[in-house]
């Protein structure tokens, strides 16, 4: 009896050891550099196959590198946890907003020397490049896509309300008027805004920028400005006087896209490249879709808030892995912006897998390079470009503004509360809200500095 | 249990087991562990798993509350700065008030409802199993699915499920999740629906333990339903009631799922709770995760709940054992 109990104990100990041993990290020792790269979550099999084909091409061209994939989608909450947990792939993408903060705190690999050797390094639009540079001008994060904010509108609702979808609003007063008409005539929300998960602050900052204001200047919060008051007063009037904003005032990026795609929102402000998400994730009917530029106030400081995507390398990557990662970024993300063969191959795959080709973006280099790429892929374009003409015809002439750089998300969060208060409390005191928000935003900026 | 037992036999209720004779000196770990080495080896997996996944993270959180760290760069010791930062945050008071409001509402609605439901079910002669299953059904629904389902019910438009029903009697539409005055009761309603089933089952089990002869004796003495409930059922359940009460307080002090999924703390922080604030410190901060502040607030919450629990059990000890 005693023997069998001891044997069982030994077995239990062995099992424990085996279990713990299974936690160890084994990388195949085949003499190659192994990297994990990002693949979008939830892709169709055809798109996954196409991605694998690109990996095969890359590995053929770089036999000393082995590429593995890891599903990844940037969201504020999961990204921070993955970053802290060290579970991000070697190559991943982040929005422009996060670039400088990650660089300052050394949370991504310093690939400045590697990016300096890229042939197009000096061709970047300086405004775009700044999102991925440290104070010395070294590029730690490679900009792979850029956009300017736009006004998305539902052409079907416009028509149902007796408005001309080919002549979208060109002033904020026209937006307010169109929203009221849509709401009255169709019963749907004429205009809606994001309010949750820091997106309320993001969109409010967008509108303030379009009116000529800023939310941050020289390391100080500038929340209480005439432009901010104008933006909030209009929002308040649309919500409580016109009743043109529907019933839901707790949208984040995903849910407002969902509601817009289902035809329940007449207009909303978001990134100009949103069509991809609306179509692939939210089953938008392309016939419904319209996109135009944000109206800019007659003010020399007025501009359109920009944004974009950076490709970065994990801080855990070894030197050889960093080099391999930059090669992959160059191959997968950048060649299609600079090399005709790659641009065409990418567009062809996307078109075959029913992914949108030709959704508007802003050039990361210069307008001429961007236009050239558009001519290369013209035959594969499958998005309703005519319905986006009010945007694409004007956005390149609009001054592009970068997002605030210090405590960006915290200040956006503070402004979320302001927007939510305006939309959910009738007669909300704008003076009091701005006084509180100014103090909180300044505290956040001070803490970050 | 120690092998040296100086208490009179019978105190432990373990009369059949012979007492081990007292030995001089402090016995070793192996000797004190009844069963010796095999027991320790069998315990090892559990100790390792608990240690790695429960105790170590708790210890790490305590350490982190005194550090500034984003878990990528090297941590920096900052003394009590994280605690000062938490106390200086104007949202802390909002979160405490909201959490307390949720707890009070949940206590008012969520505490008595399962008890009443269980007592009513225990009186039912037929189909008691069916009622129990129906009461427990919401617990089976995954919490996230339940919240998404209730989001549809709470649609603020006239065609929302609840608003359609209210519309039949000429009420509404109600902005369930958008109105600052209504949003918290809306969350409590869903939370009560989701959690009541589990408590009902506990009460039903406890009710089967009440001696039927007590009720028979009371009936002979002419006691009515109310008297039987007040003088027999509730006193017989008080041990369970005390436990479910403290569990409810601890649970509601840590409410996260409903405000996170329904409103993300909105509108205008009206549903910002302590756990949601901790989450925001840790995961929605562009500093790359202010884990120090998150750990500090977590530690404070744990200390308060521990103190409350100790105080509660001390105050109610005589009542629960009488």
From TrEMBL, chain A:
Keywords: Signal. It comes from the Bacteria. It holds the Pfam family SBP_bac_8. Residues 1-22 form the signal peptide. The keyword Signal applies. InterPro entries: Bact_solute-bd_prot1, SBP. PANTHER family: ARABINOSE-BINDING PROTEIN-RELATED, SUGAR-BINDING LIPOPROTEIN. This is Extracellular solute-binding protein. It comes from Glycomyces paridis.
TrEMBL record, chain B:
Residues 1-27 are annotated as: Disordered. Keywords: Cell membrane, Membrane, Transmembrane, Transmembrane helix, Transport. It is a multi-pass membrane protein. It comes from the Bacteria. GO terms for biological process: transmembrane transport. Belongs to the binding-protein-dependent transport system permease family. This is Sugar ABC transporter permease. It comes from Glycomyces paridis.
């Amino acid at each position: 009896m005693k023997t069998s109990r001891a044997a069982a104990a030994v077995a239990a100990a062995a099992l424990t050891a085996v279990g713990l041993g299974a936690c160890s990290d084994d990388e195949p020792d085949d003499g190659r550099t192994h990297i994990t790269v990002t693949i979008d979550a939830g892709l169709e099999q055809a798109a996954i196959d196409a991605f694998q084909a690109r990996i095969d091409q890359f590995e053929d061209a770089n036999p000393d590198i082995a590429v593995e994939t890891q599903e990844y989608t940037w969201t504020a909450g999961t990204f921070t946890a993955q970053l802290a947990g060290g579970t991000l792939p070697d190559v991943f993408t982040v929005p422009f907003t996060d670039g400088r903060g990650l660089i300052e705190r050394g949370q991504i690999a310093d690939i400045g020397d590697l990016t300096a050797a890229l042939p197009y390094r000096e061709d970047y639009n300086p405004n775009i490049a700044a999102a991925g540079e440290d104070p010395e001008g070294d590029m730690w994060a490679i900009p792979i896509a850029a956009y300017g904010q736009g006004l998305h509108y539902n052409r079907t609702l416009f028509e149902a309300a007796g408005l001309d979808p080919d002549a979208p609003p060109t002033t904020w007063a026209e937006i307010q008027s169109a929203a009221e008409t849509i709401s009255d005539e169709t019963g749907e929300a004429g205009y809606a805004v994001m309010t949750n998960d820091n997106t309320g602050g993001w969109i409010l900052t967008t509108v303030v920028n379009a009116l000529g204001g800023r939310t941050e200047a020289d390391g100080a919060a500038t929340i209480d400005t005439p432009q901010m008051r104008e933006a909030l007063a209009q929002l308040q009037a649309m919500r409580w006087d016109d009743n043109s904003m529907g019933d839901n005032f707790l949208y984040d990026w995903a849910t407002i896209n969902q509601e817009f795609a289902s035809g329940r929102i007449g207009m909303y402000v978001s990134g100009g490249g949103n069509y991809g998400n609306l179509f692939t994730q939210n089953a938008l009917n392309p016939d419904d879709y319209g996109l135009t530029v944000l109206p800019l106030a007659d003010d020399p400081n007025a501009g359109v808030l920009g944004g974009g995507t950076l490709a970065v390398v994990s801080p855990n990557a070894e030197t050889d892995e960093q080099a391999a990662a930059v090669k992959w970024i160059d191959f997968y993300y950048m060649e299609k912006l600079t090399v005709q063969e790659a641009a065409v191959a990418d567009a062809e795959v996307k078109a075959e897998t029913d992914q949108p080709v030709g959704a508007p973006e802003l050039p990361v280099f210069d307008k001429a390079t961007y236009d050239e790429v558009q001519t290369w892929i013209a035959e594969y374009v499958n998005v309703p470009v005519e319905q986006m003409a009010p945007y694409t015809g004007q956005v390149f002439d609009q001054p592009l503004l970068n997002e605030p750089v210090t405590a960006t998300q915290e200040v956006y969060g503070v402004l979320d509360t302001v927007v939510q208060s305006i939309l959910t409390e009738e007669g909300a005191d704008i003076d009091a809200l701005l006084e509180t928000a100014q103090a909180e935003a300044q505290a956040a900026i001070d803490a970050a500095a | 249990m120690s092998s040296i037992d100086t208490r009179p036999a019978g105190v432990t209720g373990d009369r059949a087991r012979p007492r081990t004779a007292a030995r001089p000196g402090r016995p070793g770990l192996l000797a004190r562990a009844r069963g010796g080495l095999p027991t320790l080896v069998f315990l090892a997996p559990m100790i390792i798993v608990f240690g790695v996944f429960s105790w170590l993270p708790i210890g790490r959180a305590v350490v982190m509350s005194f550090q500034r760290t984003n878990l990528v760069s090297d941590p920096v010791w900052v003394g009590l700065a994280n605690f000062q930062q938490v106390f200086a945050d104007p949202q802390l008071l909002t979160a405490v008030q909201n959490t307390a409001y949720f707890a009070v509402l949940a206590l008012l609605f969520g505490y008595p409802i399962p008890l009443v439901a269980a007592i009513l079910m225990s009186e039912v002669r037929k189909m008691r199993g069916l009622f129990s299953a129906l009461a427990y059904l919401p617990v089976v629904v995954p919490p996230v699915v339940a919240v998404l389902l209730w989001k549809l019910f709470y649609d603020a438009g006239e065609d929302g499920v609840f608003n359609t029903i209210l519309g039949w009697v000429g009420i509404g539409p109600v902005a369930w999740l958008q109105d600052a005055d209504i949003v918290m009761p809306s969350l409590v309603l869903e939370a009560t629906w989701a959690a009541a089933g589990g408590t009902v089952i506990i009460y039903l089990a406890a009710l089967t333990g009440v001696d039927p002869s007590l009720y028979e004796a009371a009936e002979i003495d002419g006691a009515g339903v109310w008297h039987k409930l007040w003088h027999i059922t509730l006193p017989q359940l008080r041990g369970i009631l005390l436990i479910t009460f403290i569990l409810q307080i601890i649970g509601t002090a840590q409410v996260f799922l409903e405000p996170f999924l329904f409103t993300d703390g909105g509108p205008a922080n009206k549903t910002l709770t302590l756990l949601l604030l901790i989450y925001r410190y840790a995961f929605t901060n562009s500093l790359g995760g202010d884990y120090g502040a998150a750990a500090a607030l977590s530690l404070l919450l744990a200390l308060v709940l521990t103190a409350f629990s100790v105080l509660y059990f001390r105050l109610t000890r005589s009542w629960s054992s009488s």
